[in-house]
Each structure stands twice: as structure tokens, then as C-alpha cells.
């Protein structure tokens, strides 16, 4: 049989270990939060860059230069990868739009302008959404 002092010592040690573990866990959680914030900022900035990368090609198409399947394949890859990155970060609204943009560039003739307008995937709109999300993250 034990007296009350032994139980108190064990409880104090266990409580200390619990606090120590909790401190490590909170530290890891904070670092994970900062890492996720950094990844989100990078992904959102990449949306702005992708929009600006895409715009000259659209101007080229409007000038009547014609399609360049190599450029379209690159754009499909850029937008699709962005969709995956944003989805992994939980930024689903923008991720879905980037995925649609990637599918569009993979086969532009497959999607009509009415569908694209309803999907709200214009470059200005994508950049606007990314900038809004950036502002929210940076102010938090």
C-alpha cells in the first residue's frame, strides 16, 4: 500500500510530462500553421504569375497568330498543378477554377465560351480571387 505522498510525486511527474508534451505539440502546431500559411501564400502568388503568363498567349491568339500546342500544353500543366496545390491547401474555390483552366488549355475546342463564363475562370477573376485570399492570409 502507498501513502499519499508517492501518488502526489507520480502525479506531479506525469503532469510535468503532459505539460512538456503539450508545449512541444503546440510548438509543432504553430510551425505547421506558419508552414501552411507560407505554402498558401506561394500558391496564391503562383496563380497571379500564371495569369500573367497566360495573358500574352491570349493576345497572340487574338492577333491571329494561331494556336501553339506546345504553349497550350505548358499552360494546361501550370493551371492543373496550381489546382492540385490549392486543393491540397484547402483552397477549393480557387482550386476548382484552376483545374477548369487546366482542362481548357489541354483541349480548348472542347469548352465553349458560355461554359467558361459560367465557370468564372477569366484571368482577371482568378487573379482577383488570389489577391483577395492573399490579403486575408496576410492580415491574419
Intertermini distance: 55 Å
Total number of domains: 1
How many strand units? 0
Structural category: mainly alpha
What fraction, in percent, of the residue positions are helical? over 70%
Note the beta-strand portion.
under 5%
Chain oligomer state = single chain
Radius of gyration: 25 Å
Describe the SSE topology.
Blueprint: H1 4-62, H2 69-88, H3 92-106, H4 113-119, H5 123-139
Helix pairs in contact: 1-2, 1-5, 2-3
Commentary on this structure:
- The chain is mainly alpha-helical.
- The chain has one domain (39-139).
- Helix content is 84%, strand content 0%.
- The chain has five helices and no strands.
- The chain has helices at residues 4-62, 69-88, 92-106, 113-119, 123-139.
- α1 (4-62) runs antiparallel to α2.
- The longest helix is centred in the N-terminal third of the chain and has 59 residues, at 4-62.
- Residues 5-11 have low confidence and may be disordered.
Brief summary of the model shown:
This protein is mainly alpha-helical and 140 residues long. It has helices spanning 4-62, 69-88, 92-106, 113-119, 123-139.
List keywords for this structure.
mainly alpha, 5 helices, 84% helix
Amino acid at each position: 500500500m502507498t501513502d499519499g505522498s508517492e501518488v502526489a510525486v507520480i502525479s506531479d511527474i506525469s503532469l510535468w510530462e503532459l505539460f512538456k508534451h503539450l508545449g512541444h505539440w503546440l510548438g509543432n502546431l504553430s510551425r505547421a500553421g506558419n508552414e501552411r500559411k507560407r505554402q498558401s501564400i506561394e500558391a496564391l502568388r503562383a496563380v497571379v504569375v500564371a495569369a500573367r503568363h497566360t495573358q500574352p498567349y491570349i493576345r497572340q491568339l487574338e492577333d491571329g497568330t494561331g494556336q501553339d500546342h506546345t504553349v497550350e500544353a505548358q499552360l494546361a500543366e501550370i493551371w492543373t498543378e496550381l489546382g492540385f496545390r490549392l486543393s491540397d491547401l484547402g483552397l477549393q474555390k480557387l482550386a476548382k477554377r484552376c483545374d477548369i483552366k487546366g482542362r481548357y488549355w489541354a483541349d480548348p475546342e472542347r469548352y465553349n465560351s458560355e461554359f467558361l463564363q459560367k465557370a468564372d475562370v477569366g484571368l482577371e477573376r482568378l487573379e482577383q480571387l488570389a489577391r483577395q485570399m492573399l490579403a486575408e492570409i496576410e492580415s491574419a
